[in-house]
């Protein structure tokens, strides 16, 4: 399938930080995603008290929703502004501490302990740092990852999930010749080759 001119497109971490600083965050949704609500049973699979990972989480409102259900939520986001806005917009007290294994990284944790957001590059994380997960909600991560980094991203995600985990992935479908991304077009065939 033709991914048009997107194949070589690279969005830098600085560009993402600038989007947050400028409030250019059309990707952020104030309401819970209807597909997560629709497929929540698939994600949870009758289980409670899960560890759920939010890659490139921004300030996703679904993190508090799932934490309020009794799940443990872990997210990663490059923008400290986004992480702090998440806690302030939900009036959640938190503490902040360095992540010893990652230079310059910080972990923000709700005082209740059930929401932990890492402020760093997702590629600095590993299961030895953040553990493994029962579920992943990937609403805007795979489609935001630079096309040249998709294999690296998918390998990390596969490494972070338990054997019986559920992975919910939202992508967008459009003509990649008409939009430079992000969000990037990821054809179904590529998703299958990345995740098996």
UniProtKB/TrEMBL annotation:
<feature type="binding site">
    <location>
        <begin position="121"/>
        <end position="122"/>
    </location>
    <ligand>
        <name>S-adenosyl-L-methionine</name>
    </ligand>
</feature>
<dbReference type="InterPro" id="IPR029063">
    <property type="entry name" value="SAM-dependent_MTases_sf"/>
</dbReference>
<dbReference type="GO" id="GO:0005737">
    <property type="term" value="C:cytoplasm"/>
</dbReference>
<comment type="similarity">
    <text>Belongs to the class I-like SAM-binding methyltransferase superfamily. TPMT family.</text>
</comment>
<dbReference type="InterPro" id="IPR008854">
    <property type="entry name" value="TPMT"/>
</dbReference>
<feature type="binding site">
    <location>
        <begin position="16"/>
        <end position="27"/>
    </location>
    <ligand>
        <name>S-adenosyl-L-methionine</name>
    </ligand>
</feature>
<dbReference type="GO" id="GO:0032259">
    <property type="term" value="P:methylation"/>
</dbReference>
<protein>
    <recommendedName>
        <fullName>thiopurine S-methyltransferase</fullName>
        <ecNumber>2.1.1.67</ecNumber>
    </recommendedName>
</protein>
<keyword id="KW-0808">Transferase</keyword>
<dbReference type="InterPro" id="IPR025835">
    <property type="entry name" value="Thiopurine_S-MeTrfase"/>
</dbReference>
<feature type="binding site">
    <location>
        <position position="77"/>
    </location>
    <ligand>
        <name>S-adenosyl-L-methionine</name>
    </ligand>
</feature>
<keyword id="KW-0489">Methyltransferase</keyword>
<dbReference type="Pfam" id="PF05724">
    <property type="entry name" value="TPMT"/>
</dbReference>
<keyword id="KW-0949">S-adenosyl-L-methionine</keyword>
<dbReference type="GO" id="GO:0008119">
    <property type="term" value="F:thiopurine S-methyltransferase activity"/>
</dbReference>
<feature type="binding site">
    <location>
        <position position="139"/>
    </location>
    <ligand>
        <name>S-adenosyl-L-methionine</name>
    </ligand>
</feature>
<feature type="binding site">
    <location>
        <position position="56"/>
    </location>
    <ligand>
        <name>S-adenosyl-L-methionine</name>
    </ligand>
</feature>
<keyword id="KW-0963">Cytoplasm</keyword>
């Amino acid at each position: 399938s033709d991914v048009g001119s997107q194949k070589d497109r690279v969005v830098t971490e600085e560009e993402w930080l600038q989007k947050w600083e400028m409030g250019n965050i059309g990707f952020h949704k104030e309401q819970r995603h209807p597909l997560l609500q629709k497929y929540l049973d698939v994600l949870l699979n009758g289980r409670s008290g899960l560890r759920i990972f939010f890659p490139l989480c921004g300030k996703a409102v679904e993190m508090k929703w799932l934490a309020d259900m009794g799940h443990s939520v872990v997210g990663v986001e490059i923008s400290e502004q986004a992480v702090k806005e998440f806690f302030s917009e939900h009036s959640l007290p938190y503490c902040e501490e360095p992540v010893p294994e990652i230079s310059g990284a910080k972990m923000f944790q709700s005082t209740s302990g059930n929401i932990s957001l890492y402020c760093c590059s997702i590629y600095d994380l590993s299961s030895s740092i953040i553990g493994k997960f029962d579920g992943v909600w990937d609403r805007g991560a795979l489609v935001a990852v630079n096309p040249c980094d998709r294999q690296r991203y998918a390998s990390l995600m596969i490494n972070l999930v338990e054997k019986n985990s559920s992975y919910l992935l939202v992508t967008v479908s459009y003509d990649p010749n008409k939009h430079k991304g992000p969000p990037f077009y990821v054809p179904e065939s590529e998703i299958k080759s990345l995740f098996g």
